């Protein structure tokens, strides 16, 4: 037996939602079963961890301390991994990560271009520890910040530290966290409450889910520290209905924190009491808005209220309340433990620390990414993200979800921070970055967001309820080829009215996707309205496909792929599309190796 | 009136189940949503009789319970199928073709999103971002995730569920 086997090997199997969908639990079970029956004298420790970030390439299995990362592992690979890597320290090349930037296989995921520019604070433990085992968290300095706060710092000092770090809320608006705490601490009306907003609803954002699933204790620790700072003894975690695993892991973590004396009465014999309760969301997007969320916890429908009085003064049950988002809470323990000056060195001025982005859409490496604030969009999409799928042309990214806006390629060098994004009409939001290529139609995307928001508007304000519906109707007409040129101005006017006259942040920002796409992609709107053409080939009424005779090599790929046999032609001769049969599915366009299939406008 | 006396549309076994669920919670308004969610999980919908019981138990007007039951998407006043197919239409799934996926499933089961098949087996729901964008387009059937879906894969999955019945 190899000597190295005496160093206890750790096998980390990612069991985040992404990897579980690809059978990682079965891999975990099979590893356990095989090792139980094997002749290895030193039994490796197998851990089910949270999400590693690179979900696209899951399931991910890491072997420590050798620092080998295997991607797209299947149950059939288990025996080979045990035989070669665990017993004999042989790396299995086939399972290594192929770095599309470096064009080579990489042994440790840390060396991959996907991970290198990253700086992990909020995600620091995810993928490294078993979220259900509190000892794992303790090993990574877990609850040390709580110790420090309770025994070495006064509540005022805790607040000062958070204030000095310049941490801004990661939920979207970027409000200074320390200021929120300080304001709340000034009211001497008790009880006070702490709330964690885990109602992550922005389509395309999943960092909060990942944190709750992969490192629930950091959220708990952050909330207890805040409780101590503002003299609150009760906190609520509002978790989205769809996030079952997050809720389950959170429940288990809260229970074990109680057993270990971090929650409950007289925490660590400090005399301070604090406890947490989980509230399951009901599946309403608007509940991500803080006042709607609090209404929902109270047992009402989730309608936002006017915020003349802030929730730090009158929040939950009209008591002073501090509400922060999951990612914000995850930043608190490292700030308390390492100090605000450490935190301030990361990022840029007024935008300190890191931000987690979920990089999704038409990008090669889909996944969760944590980078210092101020990282360029370029770096995010092309270095970390590895560029566009099939190397198609980049068109735009959408940030900030349905309340955000699109950013065209002219702004690819923008710094990713709260202020720079606001300046160009988009916003940070919760950190979803949706990458789009030339096959995404900006008008249809704007229509999609309006459809989303029209369903999710709580209906309280007329401008939001009726205005969004009207915008949706106009956009639907445009995508169907029934648009008129005046529609563009009408959309802009409607947008202004909605922003002006709606109550909550979600209503006010709802026209953003339409307004920014008109700002940067007006040509596309005009193309739809005047030329009756959707150059992305998405709006079916405005699309036709044809084959350019001079480019077609007659390979027959399109003919085989066509679901309705609309393509005729013999081998090595140019093919032709029968437009009467064509259902405009675009299969021929995506398979053509020479780019001979051309998208045209509506055939009238 | 005791909460036991409200039931005429559901049988006695079901009424006992629902009473046990309701009594699990303290008599406080803030538990309305949680109770309704447990009822939804047990019965696949919110029967009217049970709403009446909840309103009496929590001492709240029936209209309040109704307003919550109709506001939140995870609650339904109509029975849902045994298998609920949730197709994600979050942005990442949308731009990777979730619309086509929804059309496909609709055609296969001959129902529209929001509807349930006549045999009560399948419901289709369109949901907003399941947070599994790397798997786009993705769908979830009773908690199990199916990622990277296309026409062939979705047919195989649904056939499997049909076969299991």
UniProtKB/TrEMBL annotation, chain A:
4Fe-4S ferredoxin-type domain: residues covered: 543-572, 573-602
Alphabetized Pfam families for the sequence: 2Fe-2S_thioredx, Complex1_51K, Fer4_21, NADH_4Fe-4S
Superkingdom classification of source: Bacteria
Alphabetic keyword roster: 4Fe-4S, Iron, Iron-sulfur, Metal-binding
Key word Lyase present: no
Database matches in PROSITE patterns: 4FE4S_FER_1, 4FE4S_FER_2
Gene3D superfamilies with a match to the protein in the record: 3.10.20.600, 3.30.70.20, 6.10.250.1450, Glutaredoxin (3.40.30.10), NADH-ubiquinone oxidoreductase 51kDa subunit (3.40.50.11540), NADH-ubiquinone oxidoreductase 51kDa subunit, iron-sulphur binding domain (1.20.1440.230)
InterPro entries per record: 4Fe4S_Fe-S-bd, 4Fe4S_Fe_S_CS, Nuo51_FMN-bd, Nuo51_FMN-bd_sf, Nuop51_4Fe4S-bd, Nuop51_4Fe4S-bd_sf, Thioredoxin-like_sf
PANTHER family per UniProt: NADH-QUINONE OXIDOREDUCTASE SUBUNIT F
Annotated family: Belongs to the complex I 51 kDa subunit family.
Protein name per its UniProtKB record: NADH-quinone oxidoreductase subunit F
Originating organism: Sedimentibacter acidaminivorans
From TrEMBL, chain B:
CDD domains: TRX_Fd_NuoE
Protein name: NADH-quinone oxidoreductase subunit E
Keyword annotations of the record: 2Fe-2S, Iron, Iron-sulfur, Metal-binding
Native organism: Sedimentibacter acidaminivorans
Pfam families per record: 2Fe-2S_thioredx (PF01257)
Cofactor(s) the protein requires to work: [2Fe-2S] cluster
Family as reported in the entry's similarity comment: Belongs to the complex I 24 kDa subunit family.
Gene3D superfamilies the UniProt entry points to: Glutaredoxin, NADH-quinone oxidoreductase subunit E
């Amino acid at each position: 037996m190899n000597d190295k086997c005496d160093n206890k090997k750790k096998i980390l199997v990612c069991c985040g939602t992404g990897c579980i969908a690809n059978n990682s639990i079965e891999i975990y079970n099979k590893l356990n079963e095989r090792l139980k029956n094997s002749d290895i004298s030193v039994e490796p420790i197998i851990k089910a961890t949270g999400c590693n970030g690179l979900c696209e390439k899951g399931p991910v299995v890491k072997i420590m301390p050798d620092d080998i990362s295997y991607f797209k592992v299947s149950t059939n690979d288990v025996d080979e991994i045990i035989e070669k890597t665990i017993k004999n320290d042989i790396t299995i090349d086939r399972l290594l990560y192929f770095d599309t930037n470096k064009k080579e296989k990489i042994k440790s995921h840390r060396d991959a271009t996907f991970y290198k520019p990253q700086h992990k604070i909020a995600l620091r433990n995810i993928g490294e520890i078993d979220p259900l085992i509190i000892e794992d968290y303790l090993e990574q300095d877990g609850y040390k910040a709580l110790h420090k706060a309770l025994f070495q710092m006064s509540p005022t000092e805790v607040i000062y530290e958070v204030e000095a770090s310049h941490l801004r809320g990661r939920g979207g608006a970027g409000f200074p966290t320390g200021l929120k705490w300080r304001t709340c601490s000034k009211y001497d009306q008790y009880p006070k409450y702490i709330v964690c907003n885990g109602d992550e609803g922005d389509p395309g954002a999943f960092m909060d889910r990942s944190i709750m699933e992969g490192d629930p204790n950091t959220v708990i620790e952050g909330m207890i520290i805040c409780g101590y700072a503002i003299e609150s003894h009760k906190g609520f975690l509002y978790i989205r209905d769809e996030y079952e695993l997050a809720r389950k892991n959170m429940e288990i973590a809260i229970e074990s924190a109680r057993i270990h004396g971090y929650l409950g009465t007289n925490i660590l014999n400090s005399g301070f009491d604090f406890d947490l309760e989980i509230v399951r969301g009901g599946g309403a997007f608007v509940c991500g808005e803080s006042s709607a969320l609090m209404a929902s916890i109270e047992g009402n429908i989730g309608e936002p209220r006017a915020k003349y009085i802030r929730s730090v003064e009158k929040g939950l049950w009209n008591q002073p309340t501090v509400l922060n988002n999951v990612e914000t809470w995850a930043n608190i323990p490292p700030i308390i433990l390492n100090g605000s000056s450490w935190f301030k060195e990361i990022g840029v001025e007024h935008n300190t620390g890191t931000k987690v982005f979920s990089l999704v859409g038409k990008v090669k490496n889909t996944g969760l990414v944590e980078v210092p604030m101020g990282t360029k969009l370029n770096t995010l999409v092309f270095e970390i993200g590895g560029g566009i799928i099939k190397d198609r042309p980049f068109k735009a990214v959408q940030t900030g979800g349905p309340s955000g806006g699109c950013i065209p390629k002219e702004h690819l060098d923008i710094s990713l921070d709260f202020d720079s994004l606001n300046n160009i009409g988009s916003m940070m939001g919760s950190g979803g970055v949706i990458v789009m290529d030339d096959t995404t139609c900006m008008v249809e995307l704007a229509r999609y967001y309006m459809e989303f928001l029209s369903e999710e508007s709580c209906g309280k304000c007329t401008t939001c309820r009726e205005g969004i519906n009207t915008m949706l109707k106009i956009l639907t007409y445009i995508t169907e080829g029934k648009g008129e040129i005046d529609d563009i101005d009408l959309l802009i006017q409607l947008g202004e009215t909605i922003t002006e006259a709606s109550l909550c942040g979600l209503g006010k920002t709802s026209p953003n996707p339409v307004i920014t796409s008109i700002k940067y992609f007006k040509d596309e709107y005009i193309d739809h309205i005047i030329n009756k053409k959707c150059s992305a080939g998405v709006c079916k009424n405005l699309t036709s496909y044809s084959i350019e005779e001079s480019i077609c090599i007659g390979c027959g790929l399109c003919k085989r792929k066509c679901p309705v046999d609309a393509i005729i032609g013999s081998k090595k001769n140019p093919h032709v599309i029968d437009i009467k049969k064509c259902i405009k599915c675009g299969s021929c366009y995506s398979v053509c190796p020479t780019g001979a299939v051309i998208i045209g406008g509506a055939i009238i | 009136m005791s909460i036991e006396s409200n039931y005429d549309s559901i049988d006695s076994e079901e009424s006992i189940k629902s009473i046990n669920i309701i009594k699990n919670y303290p008599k406080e308004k803030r538990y309305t949503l949680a109770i309704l969610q447990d009822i939804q999980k047990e019965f696949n919908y919110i029967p009217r009789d049970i709403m009446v019981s909840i309103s009496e138990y929590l001492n709240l007007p029936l209209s309040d319970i109704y307003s919550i039951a109709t506001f939140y998407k995870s609650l339904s006043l109509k029975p849902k199928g045994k298998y609920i197919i949730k197709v994600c239409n979050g942005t990442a799934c949308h731009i990777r073709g979730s619309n086509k996926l929804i059309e496909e499933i609709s055609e296969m089961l001959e129902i529209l999103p929001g509807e349930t098949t006549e045999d009560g087996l399948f419901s289709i729901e369109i949901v907003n971002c399941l947070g599994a964008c790397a798997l786009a387009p993705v769908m979830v059937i009773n908690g199990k995730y199916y990622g990277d879906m296309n026409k062939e894969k979705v047919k195989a999955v649904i056939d499997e569920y049909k076969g299991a019945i």
